[in-house]
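Let's practice the habit of predicting before peeking. Look at the sequence and jot down your guess about where helices and strands might fall. Then scroll down.
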Amino acid sequence: MAASAPSQCYNRVSVAQTIIRRRPRRNNYILIIFDSCRWDSFVAARPKVMRKLGRVERRWSYASWTSPSHYNFLIGLMPHTSPRHVFASEYYKREFVKFNERLGCNDFEFKSLVPRLYLPAFLKETLGYRTHAMVSLPVLNPKTVLNQGFDTYKLMEKHNDMRAMLREMKFPEDRPSFYLLNVGETHYPYALPDEPPELWPRISGVHGVFKHLDDHIVGGKLRTRKEKFFDQKKLDELRQRQIQAVRYLDGVVEELFDLVPKNTYITITSDHGELFGEDGYFGHGPIQHEKVFEVPFVEGKLR
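Done guessing? Here is the structure:
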């Protein structure tokens, strides 16, 4: 009988190893944020590839500017629906439960994030994820408070080149990966990566503020009182450029689908919308208007 003990021990170890091998892997999770992309621009572009993830929803951002909106993302708050007769606490509870599907687990609750309330840190320190961020806009640069809980956090060389992000993405098999991608093609001046800067559209008083996007310097002179206010024809052209940027990005997302492993869940949304002359507004930020909060939202798991 004594001689059989090692064999029994070996069998128990083998069974344990088999259980571990059979345990479903957590999903890789990719959160893609099309900066400034408003809901109706996304819909007008009629993307085919991104729709494969699921139904495209109309949602609302918690903020009208890039930095606070991304903070909401990183504490786990996605753009929200607007249900009637629902307590906010119940809505949040339901939304956080959605992370079980995104991550491929069954025990995620809001309290899982306590006390830091920061998704990247929780994924890295508690669930063992590799965590990465690649951002396009300088207001999200690595020196900001958003760079917490990430193994890598990079401000891209160009503000409008999502394809460059794909070239840096890796998915080791030993641990799941989380990627935050802030995509700038849909941000003013709505330029694609192969378009020379001298051909970018220019609106007096606006272009100067963003002309150094890829130099990590954002500044310039604002419009003076003597300058003519926005030309609606130019604003309509800008909206068409944003729509075209979404069409272009649909092709880049198709390349992403070919790159990622099958056990990958992807969320595509926007941090806020944009105004193109509606009611006398342009842009986003210090604006209280439905179109600056209205964003697209689509997500799902590749199979």
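How did you do? The mean pLDDT is 86.
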